[in-house]
């Protein structure tokens, strides 16, 4: 009862509004109104067995990633990186709207419920940010999501056993070959032995060429990980 009064008071004092169109939202529904939410484009199954793009039949690999080598075993992304997701992710990472972790966690919950029903994982990690960037931003956007996902799945969150070794140039400003070079060897496992024979769910906010997740998976595989599934909120078309 007390919680309901608090939540009602909270709504009256700070009415929540849709991040895109500013229409007023119920307190229980942060992020987007129904109309804006209907513009999200989910990445439907069947998924490419490597990168998670939609393909025409089960067990196919898509033409876009056929020549790529990834260190993760499979990758998935929930929605396409286009409006309104582009704006929301930007607000979340750079606009001080940390509260949007609830919205993106909800997106991941939906995707996991629909597509990961028969998958078993041992541990959840997120792609680490380098310390300087994490200090500047005040949080690691992917780690907030992996913390949520690990709670939902009842698993340990172990990003603290990983480190991003050095400051790399932002991937978003680089071409494909440069992205690969930029992240090569930049992740390090701190607790050797912890990931041995484990099935890992590797969470990130966005999958573009897949090079960052792949390089992170490389470090985990070198530490003996048995299987790595990468899951991002969004990916380019
Ligand atoms: Zn709206
Ligand atoms: Zn593919």
**Percentage of residues assigned to helices:** 25-40%
- Assembly classification: single chain
- Measured by DSSP, the beta-strand proportion falls in 15-25%
Order of helices and strands: HEEHEHHEHHEEHEEHE
- Shape call: globular
The CATH class of the largest domain is identified as Alpha Beta
Q: What separation lies between the terminal Cα atoms? A: 46 Å
Residue stretches low in confidence (pLDDT < 50, at least 5 long) are 7-13
The bound ligands are:
zinc ion
Number of domains: 2
With strands numbered from the N-terminus, the spatial order across the biggest sheet is: 3-9-8-4-5
The structure class reads alpha/beta
CATH topology of the largest domain: Rossmann fold
Main sheet summary:
5 strands, parallel
Beta strands, count = 9
Rg is 18 Å
Explain what you see.
The protein is of the alpha/beta class. The protein folds into 2 domains: 1-39, no CATH class; 41-235, 3-Layer(aba) Sandwich (Rossmann fold). Helices cover 34% and strands 17% of the residues. It contains 8 helices and 9 strands. The chain has helices at residues 2-13, 34-37, 85-94, 101-115, 131-137, 141-153, 176-183, 211-222, and strands at residues 16-17, 24-25, 74-80, 123-126, 156-157, 162-164, 187-189, 199-207, 227-235. A 5-stranded parallel β-sheet has the order 3-9-8-4-5, with helices on both faces. Strand 1 and strand 2 form a beta hairpin. Helix 4 packs across helix 6. The longest helix has 15 residues, at 101-115. Mean pLDDT is 90; it is low at 7-13. The site of one zinc ion has 8 residues, from loops.
């Amino acid at each position: 009862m007390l919680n309901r009064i608090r939540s009602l008071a909270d709504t009256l004092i700070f009415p929540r509004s849709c991040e895109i169109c500013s229409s007023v939202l119920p307190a229980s529904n942060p992020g987007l109104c129904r109309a804006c939410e209907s513009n999200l484009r989910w990445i439907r199954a069947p998924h490419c067995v490597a990168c998670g793009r939609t393909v025409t039949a089960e067990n196919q690999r898509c033409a876009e990633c056929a020549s790529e080598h990834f260190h993760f075993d499979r990758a998935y992304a929930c929605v396409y990186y286009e409006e309104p997701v582009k704006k929301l992710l930007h607000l979340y990472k750079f606009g001080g709207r940390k509260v949007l972790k609830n919205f993106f966690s909800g997106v991941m919950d939906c995707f996991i419920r629909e597509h990961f029903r028969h998958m078993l994982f041992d541990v959840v990690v997120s792609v680490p940010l380098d310390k300087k960037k994490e200090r500047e931003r005040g949080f690691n956007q992917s780690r907030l999501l992996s913390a949520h996902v690990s709670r939902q799945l009842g698993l340990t969150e172990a990003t603290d056993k990983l480190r991003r070794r050095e400051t790399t140039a932002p991937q978003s400003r680089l071409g494909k070959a440069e992205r690969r070079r930029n992240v090569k060897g930049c992740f390090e496992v701190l607790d050797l032995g912890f990931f041995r024979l484990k099935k890992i769910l590797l969470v990130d906010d966005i999958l573009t060429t897949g090079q960052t997740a792949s390089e992170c998976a490389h470090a985990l595989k070198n530490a003996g990980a048995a299987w790595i599934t990468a899951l991002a909120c969004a990916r380019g078309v």
